[in-house]
Design a protein that fits this description.
- Two copies of one chain form a homodimer.
- The first copy, chain A, is α/β, with parallel strands linked by helices and 222 residues long.
- The first copy, chain A, is 48% helix and 12% strand.
- Chain A contains ten helices and six strands.
- Chain A has helices at residues 17-34, 41-55, 62-69, 76-90, 99-108, 121-130, 143-146, 152-162, 176-185, 215-219; strands spanning 5-8, 112-117, 139-142, 169-173, 189-193, 207-209.
- In chain A, α6 (121-130) links the parallel β2 and β3 (139-142).
- In chain A, α1 crosses α2 (41-55) and α1 (17-34) packs antiparallel against α4.
- Chain A is elongated, with a radius of gyration of 19 Å.
- Chain A starts with a strand and ends with a helix.
- The mean pLDDT of chain A is 95.
- The A-B interface holds A 31, 35, 76-77, 79-81, 83-84, 87-88, 91, 121-123, 125-126, 128-130, 134, 140, 142, 145 and B 31, 35, 76-77, 79-81, 83-84, 87-88, 91, 121-123, 125-126, 128-130, 134, 140, 142, 145.
């Protein structure tokens, strides 16, 4: 069955989100110190990571919490400096090299392209817009809007929405549990992107690539 | 009594906030249309202003509300596009010409400089940081932190915090009710900045200038 539909994860698949998050957090810490916070930046950074681990990365009050844990009398200037530096960095996200050109080539070849991602609908759209690749996709499926995280059921819902057979689909992503296993179980061809936390872990994916900019090398072989 | 303390409002005093807010909102509307929203930009802009009037300018969900009022089925992409364009514009705020140089000259001359502003503490600090003028100020008084909006009581609290006599202070701002009247009643010298909604209205201020970059012309006459 010829492949017609290609589904992409966003974070660490279309752009280096782990690298950008790390840089954004370090820039935020530097900005707090620059604003006059007399603490060691490395200690602050480790404190921040502890808070993020505990509260989840989508929690909005990381820097508030960090300032509270330091018992600062006048935290607003430090929170404001951190958030400004954090957002400045996150606003400069770039796709992996070749991603935009590859997506265009796939569209030219007649593929239908989709995003399948976990997260907040508006935040994931914000990334596509800032990466300037939103228009390559025929539709975007975000867990929040779909009512469930990526899973067999999620991908089944996507197949139904596309009116597609699993054999016509390819899923590209970096996370074994979210991107590879559930799609593979349904019979979707899976492509593991070697990025982020699981870059070096074993995978049951059918193919492996460095990032989404290399996807054509796989599709040419199908 | 020689003037020692100069207090500045932020919005439409240190930078053209009305102009930037208007541009940011228009850019947001353009980004929604660019994202595929098939509506007239002028009508969308007027709808947005109605929402802002009703909810207040510090309300966080203007674009959500706008999309709801249009009964869009998939609003996330439009909200994300609007918020991204809005923030991109607001991040590029610049002081009025000569403001940074004037503040530096005043510091050199031995004045103590302060901010006295209504609003959210973090948002007002964010502006000072983005304008790159935070370090000129010896302290920053924001209504949220002070527990009350600018008023006679607010300025009295500021005087107490500075351990200052009214005759040693100058207040620079654009709003008659918030900046000029209460300060003047206390005996603080008042300087009206001709910007924003009240640019052309009558004032009881002791002096008038175009924007804060012109403050030295007043101080030289005191």
């Amino acid at each position: 069955m010829p492949v017609k539909y290609v589904l992409f994860d966003i974070d660490d698949t279309l752009f280096p989100s782990t690298d950008f998050a790390q840089l954004a957090r370090k820039n935020a810490i530097r900005a707090m110190v620059d604003m006059g916070l007399e603490k060691d930046p490395d200690i602050l950074y480790r404190k921040l990571l502890t808070i993020i681990d505990r509260e989840g990365s989508n929690y909005e009050g990381h820097f508030d919490r960090l300032c509270k844990s330091l018992r600062l009398k006048k935290p607003a200037r430090f929170v404001a400096a951190a958030v400004a530096a954090y957002h400045n960095t996150k606003m400069s996200i770039q796709p992996f090299p070749g991603v935009a050109r590859s997506l265009m080539k796939l569209k030219e070849s007649g593929y239908m392209l989709y995003v399948a991602t976990n997260g907040s609908t508006i935040k994931q759209w914000d990334k596509l817009i800032r990466l300037r690749i939103a228009f390559y996709f025929d539709d975007v499926f975000v867990s929040e809007e779909m009512g469930r995280a990526k899973s067999k059921k999620f991908f089944n819902d996507v197949l139904r929405r596309l009116d597609a057979e699993p054999g016509e689909c390819v899923m590209v992503g970096d996370k074994e549990a979210a991107d590879i296993l559930p799609a593979k179980e349904l019979g979707i061809t899976t492509v593991k992107v070697r990025q982020g936390r699981e870059a070096r872990e074993k995978t049951s994916a059918d193919y492996r690539i460095g990032h989404a900019g290399e996807i054509r090398s796989v599709l040419e072989r199908l």
